[in-house]
Amino acid sequence: AGAPVLDDYYYQSDAFGRQAQLAVVASLGERDPARAVAHLRAAHKTLLRDTTRGAEARAAEQQIRLVQAQQQLGAGYIGCTLSETVAKCLADGNYSRAGKLRGEFGVPERRFAWLRLRALVGRRDWAELARMAAARKSPIGFRPFVDECIAALQYQEAAKYIARCDPRDHAPLFLRIGFYREAADAAAKAKDLDTLRQVHSAARDLSLQHHVAQLIEQLVRT
Fold first, then answer.
1. DSSP run (H or E) holding 180
2. Which pLDDT tens digit goes with each residue over 9-27?
3. What is the pTM of this model?
4. Most buried among 6, 86, 125, 195, by the most CB within 10 A?
């Protein structure tokens, strides 16, 4: 009974922000999208009466559109944040819908890239990940591609993106995934004696150990 009494009080005192806040809070507790939208519409209408609350009014309008989009996507999306909704679309393989949500709601490029990367690695969709990497300059760089693949224990996939990282990271990253010959070659090119010694210690192949020993000797002499 408390909320309606407060609502009446805020209405009579022209406290539009508080009145709208009550409506928004009510919407958050709703599992029925239609009722949630009704609460949000009430909040939006209230906020429009206060010329200083244009940003909040736009946010309420955006939330209405998000709930309506979630209703179309299915029950599993109801109650999710915008980022969670986009991430779930990507995780479900609904890439085109995720892209539309990104454009419609102005999801920042970097955030969308992170959501997409994690979803694609989670789905083991390596072809789509390669398309993402090839599309244009990555807004998050390529180190995250390597790190996410390593976290998923997908070392062959991680190796594909190391060459596109900062050259100073090539040797340590190849070493991290057990690609010792590539690590040795990258370390020699970067004159990274410490990593070469780590490769020599970690490698079990005798011919590779010999090769790395020669590289170390050449670097020490120079």
1. helix 180-189
2. 345 545 666 666 766 666 6
3. 0.80
4. 86
